[in-house]
Automatic annotation (TrEMBL):
Residues 5-144 form the Tc1-like transposase DDE domain. This is Transposase.
Length: 182
């Protein structure tokens, strides 16, 4: 509920202030896949999740089944095999998720080096989202925050050049099997 702050303009000596009532203990997570295929428009597939009250012992992040469901939905939406390049989040390495991936021939999984956020294009998408949709916004309630996040993600979805730019920023490139053979 606490937004990132960015620069703003005001008359000299009159710094704009926004008072926020209090911090919410509610928690949201969003998992996203940046999808690239040579010759096609890049796509963003995401799933938000609102967590139950974590003070009562509820989980504060995505479970392996949430990631499994995201992969199944992406496979259905894309209608093609998936080459998954993941960071080293502990849930991504969960034995149950690994067993699911190994059991399906439409998923090939690779892991990024131990700490390499600069190689993950989704990190660039989160940065865009924070700077565009969330910056300098005092959210009135959790629903306001979720509506804003969904709107910002839809804006990114419709602008494939932003998704392409996040891949370009990593220095990684797309290659086809034909190009690799040469």
């Amino acid at each position: 509920m606490t937004p990132p702050t960015t620069r703003t303009w005001a008359r000299r000596g009159h710094t704009p202030l926004i008072r926020v009532r209090g911090r919410s203990q509610r928690r949201f997570s969003i998992a996203a896949l940046a999808c690239y295929k040579p010759g096609e428009r890049s796509r963003l597939i995401y799933r938000p999740k609102r967590h139950a009250d974590h003070k009562r012992g509820g989980r504060r992040s995505f479970t392996w089944t949430d990631y499994r469901d995201l992969l199944v939905a992406a496979h259905q939406q894309l209608g093609a095999p998936i080459v998954l390049v993941w960071d080293n989040l502990n849930v991504h390495k969960d034995a149950r998720l690994r067993a699911f991936i190994d059991a399906h021939d439409w998923i090939t999984c690779y892991f990024l080096p131990a700490y390499a956020p600069d190689l993950n294009p989704v990190e660039g998408l989160w940065s865009l989202l924070r700077r565009s949709s969330q910056a300098n916004t005092a959210f009135t309630d959790p629903d306001h925050l979720m509506r804003t996040l969904r709107h910002g993600l839809r804006q990114i979805q419709y602008r494939s050049n932003l998704i392409d730019g996040c891949l370009t920023e990593t220095g990684l490139t797309l290659t086809t099997s034909h190009q690799q053979a040469q």
